[in-house]
Each structure stands twice: as structure tokens, then as C-alpha cells.
Amino acid sequence: EPEVTQTPSHQVTQMGQEVILRCVPISNHLYFYWYRQILGQKVEFLVSFYNNEISEKSEIFDDQFSVERPDGSNFTLKIRSTKLEDSAMYFCASSEIWGGGNTIYFGEGSWLTVV
Amino acid sequence: GIQVEQSPPDLILQEGANSTLRCNFSDSVNNLQWFHQNPWGQLINLFYIPSGTKQNGRLSATTVATERYSLLYISSSQTTDSGVYFCLPHNTDKLIFGTGTRLQVFP
Q: What is the model's pLDDT at position B91?
């Protein structure tokens, strides 16, 4: 089965530092997503991305967050000035076409701990 | 936006028992996925099911989009079925997960 890969698998950072989480979506996919899951809670939508721009974003995705597709293969989530409450698992996902019409594949997640 | 509720929130079973998990959603959808989150946190895709019924081994799923619900059936449960089960209805690019059902299967 095709795979979405994420790096790093685990990162510990100090409060106030910037963090970049990286994702390599499946090669022919056009839609990309980031989700967050605080320990023991539900998986929360952050942002969807298509054609080099944000398609949808949640109220969680404020000015602290940004996404980018810097080249043809990577999709990144940047968190500026991290806070303790940013500690969570972050999942990247991709789909071939619009999410409503196709399977969405998730990566294994990047666990972020802010201390 | 769409509201997605799952029931029951928690389920405890003995190995060998059967169970039904439910996902209710508030808006019309084009598709729906079921996931199992294992104890390591990985989201494992179980089914992609816009309508009708699909089966995969001991698991099967049914979606009735017109009535805005989907069911996941687990038969002859095993300890490895433990974890959290999420549904993910697809209706826009803002895809909202359900609240999850935490399943614990004991030997």
C-alpha cells in the first residue's frame, strides 16, 4: 500500500522555539492535510492544502502555524514560538483528488513534546 | 460544519465477543473512512465505504448515507483489536474525525 512518510517521529523542543514537521505525501496526490491529536483526545483538523494554497483551515490553525510545499515532494507544517499546549501527535495526510472522492492516507505521525 | 458523533465512547469486551460501533454525522457526505488507532498511535485505514456494506475478515462496515450513519462490526474480537476506532466522513476539504470509540478486549 502507498505510504505517507513523516519526519521526525518524535521531537522535543523548548517553549518558544520554532518547529518544522515534514511530510512526504504519496507521489501522485494533490491534496494534503495536517491533523493534531493531543494525548487521549480526538484527532483534530488543522488545515487542507491544494494547488499551493490553503483550502480550508480550522480555528486552531492561527498565525502561529503555517504550511508550505517547498518543492515537488515535501509538505511542511511550521509552528512558530511553540507553547506547552502544542504538545501533541501531528498527522500528515494526502489524497489523490478532493477528499470527498477518494481514500485519504495518513502518515505515522510526528510526536511533538514542548518543555 | 459537520458534527460527527460516535457511540459508544467506551467498550469493554471479552475475547470472542462481537460488537457494533456507530458513527452519526450531521450533513450529507460523499464518502466515509473507518480507522483503527493502535496503541502506538498509528491510524490504520480499515474501510473506505461511501455506501453499502464491505467485509474484510472479521470486520465489516455499513454506511447508510441517506440516514447519515455508518456502522462498524467486529466479530470474534481479539486482544489485538484493542485501541480507538474513528470514523471520518468526507464532505468538504475540512474533514472532521468522529469522537472515537475506545475498545478494550480482554483475554
A: 82
